[in-house]
């Protein structure tokens, strides 16, 4: 076994020894700790309306922003309510 090797050699070793796995179909109850082979997309939005179930903040960034930023809260938007103002740059 080699002690110290170059990055290129390490990559060669990995490529030689690692092979992609095949795919298989399993029922949902046996899918625990497995990885999806394809993307899964819904055919409808769920929930079927705009909603944010979590608290958070919105900030409209600009390319000229510098850290640290001093931000102020400009409005509060309860769940299910549409904001009365746009979040503008700055």
Structure overview:
This protein has one helix at 7-17. The protein has 90 residues and is low in regular secondary structure. It has a domain at 1-49.
Q: In summary, what is this structure?
A:
It contains one helix and no strands.
- What spatial form do the alpha-carbon principal axes imply? flat
Number of strands: 0
Average pLDDT metric: 83
Radius of gyration: 25 Å
Q: What is the assembly state of the chains in this entry?
A: single chain
Terminal residue distance: 58 Å
Residues in helix, %: 10-25%
State the low-pLDDT regions, or none. Answer: none
Number of helices, counting only DSSP H or I runs of 4 residues or more: 1
Secondary-structure element string: H
Which keywords apply here?
1 helix, little secondary structure, 90 residues, flat
Secondary-structure topology with pairs:
Blueprint: H1 7-17
């Amino acid at each position: 076994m080699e002690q110290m090797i170059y990055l290129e050699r390490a990559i060669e070793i990995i490529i030689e020894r690692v092979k992609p796995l095949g795919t298989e179909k399993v029922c949902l109850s046996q899918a625990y700790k497995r990885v999806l082979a394809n993307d899964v997309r819904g055919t409808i939005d769920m929930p079927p309306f705009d909603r944010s179930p979590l608290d958070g903040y919105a900030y409209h960034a600009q390319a000229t922003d510098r850290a640290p930023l001093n931000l102020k809260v400009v409005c509060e938007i309860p769940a299910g309510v549409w904001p009365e103002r746009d979040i503008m740059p700055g």
